[in-house]
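chain below, 226 aa
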Amino acid sequence: MTFIRHQLRHAALTIGSALALGCTGVTINDGDPTSDASTCPAEPGAVSLAFSNGSVASKSNCLGIAGQLWSSSDGHSTITPRFAGSTACIQGQVAQVVGKDYDTYWGVVAGLNLNQPPNSAAKAYDAATHGLSGFQLELSGTEQPASTRMRIQLQDTQDGFYCQAGVTSAARDYQLAAFHEDCWTTTPGRAPPPSSLLSVALMITAQEAAPLPFDVCFTLAGLHTD
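prediction:
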């Protein structure tokens, strides 16, 4: 099923190019992620990544995560982000795949850069240094696609893509060690390099059966090891 790899790859290239060059097709909300991180609790657990007008400031969490929210589509699907206050929501419709062309019709994606200074491109985030072991994702909204159409994914600085399939509404932990390339196959590929993570994102993939409307909000937390 190489077409799904193409979906992820095309999303990565679109987002990466836009972040570097300011291209159209990606919506990025500016923020002020200034560094003033606190110390994480002694016990492992979830650390809320508080959204504030489209960004997360590192001073708001003990994991050093600071960056902007963004969204992108394949150009046939529509996505309207609502990144205001503490809200992170996306609304639109994933286009139906035409002629089995999954390279063109891959869907939509919205995510968070993990290490992005103000007015700068996203940089590598070292999960091991910050004690990050994974993410917790929770969804809400009036029109959520089936879990089979949704994935949580990581991108590294070399345009590597890693995912976990079957995202559900309820808050759920997604450990870094469980992310893999080609996560939809019976023999997934390699795990992400913890020292060069770029972003974490929610992807809604296209299907051949019909267009897929969506109206979804999400919250994120980082899981710390100690």
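Residues 2-33+44-212 form one domain. Confidence is low (pLDDT under 50) at residues 12-36.
thats it, cya
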